Amino acid sequence: MKKQEILEKNIQSLGKVAIAYSGGIDSSYLLYVANQVLPQENVIAIIANGIMMARKDYEEAIQFLKENNFRYIEVPYKPLEITEFKENHKDRCYHCKKKLMTILKKVANENGYEHLLDGKNADDLTVYRPGNKATEEVGVISPLAKFEFHKEEIRQYSKRLGISFWNKPSNSCLATRFPYNTILTEEELKKVEQSEEIIKSLGIQKVRMRIHDTIARIEVNPEDFETILNNIKYKDVENRKDKNIIEKIKDLGFSYVTLDLSGLKSGSFD
Predict the structure, then answer these.
(1) Could you give phi then psi for residue 73, rounded to 5 degrees?
(2) How do residues 2-15 score in pLDDT, each as one tens digit?
(3) N-to-C CA span, the chain
(4) Which of 81, 108, 139, 252 is the most exposed place for a label (fewest CB within 10 A)?
(5) Collapsed DSSP state (helix, strand, coil) of residue 169
């Protein structure tokens, strides 16, 4: 039996499910499948609206829900009220995820949904993810991880289902852009988001802006280095009208902007 068939039967056996929805391809695939095998009224997406998520990602997530007429609930979330998150402790993700999933589980139960599922996949079990422990403690079900769905498999299944962003690069909490034990503020998180959007405006989709006080370190794949470098050069310096990307990023409050020649590395601060 194919993995998707196993997944479908498992979701059907639960009867009624709430999905902790992030807008990423994993939870999007899970939500899509759930809506295929269960009556629409038996599936609800619950999405947290908080500063840890880039606004563009949040807006695209809501658009996906609306385009597919999926039922959903938006829940306001303030991670900066969590000391371990604000102070960016190494176990920040555990404390943030524990509080968030506790809230989502409560919302699910209050709306008549006993089971809360998330999009954790098999690959997430092999890297540093302190939030995994938190979801298990709260009682969140992770069927993609349970049935050993890997990221690339999820993308291929999503492509077959017609999910348009099946190959969209993975994103992560904006707090991951800072060294541990750095005090996080809403202003700093927004600066990360805005600076990454500047890089993405060049057509580069995978980027992490790592912050070291007033230094912004750009992480992109090596094949995108040329695009970065070409956009800090001008043939006619005296008559130019637009600022280059370095100047735009500095305008956000950085003194220096660097390009990491090692390229993009997920979890480089771990």
Answers:
(1) -130, 130
(2) 899 999 999 999 99
(3) 38
(4) 81
(5) coil
